[in-house]
Design goal:
This protein has 463 residues and is of the alpha+beta class. Strands 1-2-3-5-4 form a 5-stranded antiparallel β-sheet, covered by helices on one side. The longest helix has 24 residues. The N terminus is likely disordered.
């Protein structure tokens, strides 16, 4: 009897061991039939990605020694057929989401390695991360950074990946049309100063590894909207790397204006930025701070555009002091003349005017010229009567040197505008015109503008 009892005990023990091993390694679907995520949570997941359809969903083969199980959902969406990429092998994009019940047992940081995250190639860089906890689950996900951040935000997950750091690292990613990098830059909009160190660290890595300017990092700094970002951009604008410095300055002169008054005052003489910096001081009601510099620039402008911008600012300040309308009427008139001179085919994206009086689809050149003259004559008369010779001169020079690329305006249109500019110059006293031309000859720095000015001077001398 004793031997029979001992044999029975051995059989029971062997059966116990078999059941234990089965519980650890068996297929979870068989071991825990009926266990699946809350249907409402799964419904929420589908709502987060409405344009995607479910490829598959089911229990994962996970070790059950700690009582955990996982549910894996694969979503798919067709890639736009116009995107010719060798990466989207089967023309589809994929998102993988793994849910583990939050039952008080931490799966651990290495838990993510258990799952099969393989998908066909993608046009976009993808990350596989532990997104966080929420809705009664631990969430693991593989997707591009835009959808990872979106899912994390919409689901209000906590204790997962550092999204700020993930996005800062994504600034360095090169994928389809720099999607990840552009998404990351936009992510930092209004994030404040606490993300600045992450962006700067990412930018340093980029500069060590890439030849291109870290434009996306500078944009990310700008979008934070913080004074700290402004300080960093001003440092970069003072860099010995002129291309990098100009990129930073370009961002600083666009809204929101993060630079200091002293910084903008120092940058005012740079002709590429003069007009926008003037606007900043006018907006801040601090134009008096730059008035002496404006007067100096007016006497020695570096470009024709800067000459016009500075004169316009000086006139606005004068008119503001008298509480008059701040626009410079002579400039408005010159602009109106240019618009009224546009004919069919002169510009690619402007209103095409065909005078009825000209007849036909476009009219004969003679009739078009007559109609054009009739339209601009009242504006020319206004310039003849103007007492502000400096404003008339500046407007006339802008027209007389008008020479944009043919993609912007036709050669014929540019030629007609230049002729009218010369006509306006001849309305002014010759000694005044020659004095203005002499001043511009001494101060202009761009070879192309110097050449145009010589052309104007030569043509004006034939009066």
């Amino acid at each position: 009897m004793i031997s029979e009892g001992g044999s029975m005990m051995k059989q029971l023990f062997a059966l116990f061991l078999l059941l234990f091993v089965f519980s650890v390694y068996a297929d979870p679907a068989a071991a825990s039939a009926g266990s699946r995520p809350d249907p409402e949570v799964l419904k929420t997941v589908r709502k987060v990605f409405p344009g995607w359809k479910q490829n598959s969903a089911g229990r994962c083969a996970v070790s059950r020694s700690n009582g955990l199980w996982a549910w894996k959902v694969i979503l798919e969406r067709a890639v736009d057929p116009s995107i010719k990429s060798s990466y989207a092998v089967n023309g589809k994009g994929y998102i993988i989401i793994v849910m583990v019940p939050d039952i008080g047992v931490d799966p651990g940081k290495d838990f993510i390695r258990i799952f099969d995250w393989r998908t066909p190639g993608s046009d976009l860089h993808q990350e596989t991360v532990f997104l966080g906890r929420g809705h009664g689950y631990y969430w693991y996900m593989k997707s591009d950074v835009a959808r990872l951040e979106y899912f994390h935000r919409i689901m209000r997950l906590t204790d997962g990946v550092n999204i700020d750091k993930m996005m800062a690292d994504a600034l360095n990613v090169k994928d389809y049309k720099m999607f990840s990098s552009r998404t990351a830059a936009e992510y930092f909009r209004n994030k404040g100063p606490h993300v600045i160190p992450l962006i700067l660290r990412s930018m340093k890595v980029w500069q060590q590894e890439e030849k291109e300017l870290p434009v996306q990092h500078l944009v990310a700094l700008k979008l934070t909207g913080s004074e700290t970002a402004g300080a960093e951009l001003m440092k970069i604008a003072a860099s010995s790397d002129l291309a990098l410095a100009h990129q930073a300055l370009e961002l600083l002169v666009e809204e929101p204006w993060l630079g200091t008054d002293s910084f903008y005052r120092r940058a005012l003489p740079m002709p590429e930025y003069t007009g926008r910096i003037i606007r900043i001081f006018l907006h801040r009601n601090k134009a008096d701070m730059i008035l002496p510099r404006l007067k100096a620039l007016f006497k020695a402008p570096k470009t024709i555009k800067q000459y016009s911008e500075v004169l316009a600012a000086l006139r606005k300040l004068e008119k503001k002091a008298r509480k008059d309308q701040p626009d410079v009427p002579e400039f408005v008139t010159c602009n109106d003349i240019m618009i009224l001179m546009i004919r069919i085919g002169d510009t690619p994206d402007t209103l095409k005017y065909v005078p009825v009086e000209a007849g036909g689809s476009a009219g004969t050149p003679t009739k078009l010229a007559e109609e054009e003259r009739r339209r601009i004559e009242p504006h020319l008369e206004m310039l003849r009567k103007s007492k502000d010779h400096e404003a008339v001169f500046a407007g006339a020079i802008a027209l007389a040197t008008f020479s944009p690329p043919e993609a912007v305006a036709s050669k014929e249109y540019s030629s007609r505008v230049r002729r009218v500019g010369m006509e306006i110059l001849r309305m002014l006293p010759s000694e005044f015109v020659f004095a203005g031309l002499d001043m511009l000859t001494r101060s202009l720095t761009l070879p192309r503008e110097q050449s145009l000015l010589r052309m104007v001077r030569k043509e004006y001398g034939r009066r």
